[in-house]
Amino acid sequence: QVQLVESGGGLVQAGGSLRLSCAASGSISRFDSMSWHRQGPGKQREWVASLLRSGSTDYADSVKGRFTISKDNAKNTVYLQMDKLKPQDTAVYFCRAMLSPYSYWGQGTQVTVSS
């Protein structure tokens, strides 16, 4: 059973930074990909960033140039560095791990950006 635990959320002013962490139970190198998603108030969950096993990354247009996804295999942890935060980035952020055909989700961490 895969467990993912997000942390690092909080309240920050617009223009500020936060780093989210997603700690996995066991090695993250086994996963096909790991990604971050978010769900804002009254909105559907949306994809934010992905990190493939190959090391390649991809980002939603709304966060490109501001967010960076990375990993530390030794710590079994994936990070999302969020810079130049905007009020519209306010959401619950979720970590997802894909191990085909299975998908695993964390419980989420709240990020609130004040204007």
Explain what the structure shows.
- With 115 residues, the protein is mostly beta strands.
- The chain has no helices and eleven strands.
- It has strands at 4-7, 10-13, 18-24, 33-39, 46-52, 57-59, 67-72, 77-82, 91-99, 102-105, 109-114.
- The strands form two sheets. Strands 2, 4, 5, 6, 9, 10 and 11 form a seven-stranded mixed beta sheet that branches. A four-stranded antiparallel beta sheet has the order 1-3-8-7, with no helix packed on it.
- A hairpin with a 6-residue loop joins strand 4 and strand 5.
- The termini are far apart.
Précis, in short:
The chain has 115 residues and is mainly beta. The protein has strands at residues 4-7, 10-13, 18-24, 33-39, 46-52, 57-59, 67-72, 77-82, 91-99, 102-105, 109-114.
SSE-based structural type: mainly beta
Helical content (DSSP H or I, runs of 4+) = under 10%
How many helices? The count is 0
Q: Which H/E pattern describes the elements?
A: EEEEEEEEEEE
Radius of gyration: 13 Å
Mean pLDDT, to the nearest integer, reads: 97
Largest sheet: 7 strands, mixed
What's the total count of β strands?
11
Low-confidence stretches: none
Straight-line N-to-C gap: 40 Å
Shape: globular
Strand content: over 45%
